[in-house]
């Protein structure tokens, strides 16, 4: 048996699953101290199912902790950046495109040294170990222990990044080093940005993972726990401490994977309506469609694997204003059960409106009987328009497609959706995010440029697929269950040597001891 937990801005959800069977599910308001909310959810789940904690094989957790730290600029570690690129790239130094407040929050420390590669692995300049050692000593003198290392075309050849990391660890024994080649894809600035964000979360990651471990111990749960990643796969808690940035947007990804599981559809559009925001994305072969462009994280462009999700300010706790009629984006969030009118509060929310319209029987309906039909219709019109716009933005063709509605706030979708062949709201839809965490698999990914003058196209594809499968197995997947789920091939006409970019993703079930 395994437990899936998803921590959202409004609610913390937890489910207990035995294989593909859902044995229990709970939803509780997220607490200011998020760990307390996890403990509460676990307590409720254990009481509901009369579960013996000794029978739990694993706990899967999706969290917004790390995203919030960057967005709110809180608890970030001073970070130094070493870019191996000179004489190239000097005109665009590290963090040049960052918001000033975020750059200041981590200290704006960066160094450029000689080195780097061309797209085919040829050196731009020779690596100078003494130069890197001198930089490492300057970083040590500044009292910095979080270091991000980037190198031109390091996804093609990461040797110089590794050499630099070895030197930094010699000079700064307690350094937390992030290599850009381990996180991002092609594109120096975006990949470097991802590495810097990851490095500045190093201390936050240690504290949060320790807090999760303490919460599980408090509930007498001794099984290993995993965190869900942006692409719908899992990583062990130790790996999460090394790469916390890979948990960003794991919430929407969990919801989409849960939607695929609950609906039985592998290709569909998913709308996840929470308490504060809604997320819309496309399922392709059971996994979220991956963003093809750089994604924005707290005002910073990054290019590591992220789902293609459109978010907008509509949720069950969205505040309704009456003159003129306006819905959100402000929300009462986890305070809905105390501030919403049907729960005894004095704030008019979208949940109050759909209850007043007679679509759902929640709370005290007498408290919203005074709401007039013009206001109800006006609010429902706005909600319908917001949903239709979001669906239209995510579709790639005019053909109707099935839409799966999940999340506790999915009660707001009461009108037809333009472009939907059908609207499915499956059983247990309110905890689809926790279900997505519980069923998450282990993945491996390769994103490289191959020269087809040195090998055939088939040889390049086979090599990439083999590397992706091996990475999934190394990450903890059962070898018997690993399969390739996505292959992307893009010829690079602007580069010499008949170059082509090949990205492969392989996934498999978690190997349970």
Description:
The protein has about 525 residues and is an alpha/beta fold. Among the domains are: about 75-200, Rossmann fold; about 440-510. Helices cover about 30% and strands about 25% of the residues. It has 14 helices and 23 strands. The protein has helices at about 35-50, 65-70, 100-105, 130-140, 160-170, 190-200, 200-220, 235-240, 250-265, 335-340, 350-355, 375-395, 430-440, 455-475; strands at about 1-5, 10-20, 20-30, 60, 80-85, 110-115, 145-150, 175-180, 225-230, 235, 270-275, 280-285, 285-290, 295, 300, 310, 320, 325-330, 400-405, 420-425, 440-450, 485-490, 500-510. It has a six-stranded mixed sheet. Helix 5 (about 160-170) links the parallel strand 7 and strand 8 (about 175-180). The mean pLDDT is about 85.
CATH-derived architecture of the domain at 77-200: 3-Layer(aba) Sandwich
Strands of the largest sheet, in order across it?
3-2-1-4-9-10
Question: Radius of gyration in whole Å, from Cα?
Answer: 24 Å
Unreliable runs, pLDDT <50, ≥5 residues? none
What amount of the residues lies in strands? 25-35%
Number of strands: 23
What is the first-to-last residue Cα distance?
A: 13 Å
Number of helices: 14
Give the CATH class of the domain at 77-200: Alpha Beta
User: How would you characterize the largest beta sheet?
Assistant: 6 strands, mixed
Summarize the amount of helix as a percent range: 25-40%
User: What structural class results from the helix and strand content?
Assistant: alpha/beta
Overall pLDDT level:
87
Global shape: globular
CATH topology of the domain at 77-200: Rossmann fold
């Amino acid at each position: 048996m395994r437990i899936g937990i998803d921590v959202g801005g409004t609610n913390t959800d937890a489910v207990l699953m035995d294989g593909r069977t859902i044995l229990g599910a709970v939803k509780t308001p997220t607490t200011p101290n998020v760990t307390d909310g996890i403990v509460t959810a676990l307590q409720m789940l254990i009481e509901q199912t009369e579960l013996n904690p000794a029978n739990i094989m694993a706990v899967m957790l999706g969290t917004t902790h790390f995203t919030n730290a960057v967005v709110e600029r809180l608890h970030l570690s001073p970070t130094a950046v070493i870019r191996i690129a000179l004489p190239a790239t000097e005109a665009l130094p590290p963090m040049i495109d960052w918001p000033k407040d975020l750059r200041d929050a981590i200290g704006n420390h960066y160094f450029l040294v000689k080195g780097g590669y061309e797209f085919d692995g040829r050196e731009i300049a020779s690596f100078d170990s003494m130069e890197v050692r001198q930089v490492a000593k300057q970083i040590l003198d500044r009292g910095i222990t979080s270091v991000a290392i980037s190198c031109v075309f390091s996804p093609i050849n990461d040797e110089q990044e590794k050499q630099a990391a070895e030197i930094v660890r010699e000079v700064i024994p307690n350094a937390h080093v992030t290599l850009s080649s381990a996180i991002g894809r092609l594109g120096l600035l975006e990949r470097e940005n991802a590495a810097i964000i990851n490095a500045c979360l190093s201390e936050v990651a240690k504290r949060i993972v320790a807090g999760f471990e303490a919460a599980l111990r408090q509930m007498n749960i001794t099984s290993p726990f995993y965190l869900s990643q942006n692409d719908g796969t899992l990583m062990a808690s130790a790996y999460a401490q090394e790469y916390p940035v890979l948990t960003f947007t794991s919430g929407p990804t969990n919801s989409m994977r849960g939607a695929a599981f609950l609906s039985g559809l592998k290709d569909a559009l998913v709308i996840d309506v929470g308490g504060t925001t809604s997320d819309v994305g496309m399922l392709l072969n059971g996994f979220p469609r991956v963003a093809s462009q750089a994604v924005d994280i707290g005002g910073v462009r990054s290019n590591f694997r992220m789902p293609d999700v459109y978010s907008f300010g509509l949720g069950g706790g969205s505040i309704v204003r009456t003159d003129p009629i306006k819905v959100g984006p402000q929300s009462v969030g986890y305070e809905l059960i105390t501030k919403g009118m049907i729960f005894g509060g004095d704030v008019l929310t979208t949940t109050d409106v759909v209850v007043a319209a007679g679509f759902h029987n929640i709370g005290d309906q007498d408290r919203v009987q005074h709401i007039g039909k013009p206001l109800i219709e006006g609010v429902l019109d706005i909600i319908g328009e917001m949903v239709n716009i979001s669906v239209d933005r995510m579709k790639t063709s005019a053909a109707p497609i099935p839409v799966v509605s999940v999340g506790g706030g999915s009660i707001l979708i009461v009108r037809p959706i333009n472009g939907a062949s059908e609207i499915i709201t499956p059983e247990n839809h309110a905890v689809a995010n926790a279900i997505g965490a519980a069923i998450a698999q282990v993945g491996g990914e390769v994103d490289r440029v191959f020269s087809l003058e040195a090998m055939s196209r088939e040889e390049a594809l086979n090599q990439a697929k083999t590397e992706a499968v091996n990475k999934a197995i190394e990450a903890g997947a059962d070898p018997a269950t690993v399969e390739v789920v996505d292959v992307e091939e893009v010829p690079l006409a602007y580069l010499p040597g008949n170059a082509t970019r090949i990205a492969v993703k392989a996934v498999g079930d978690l190997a349970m001891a």
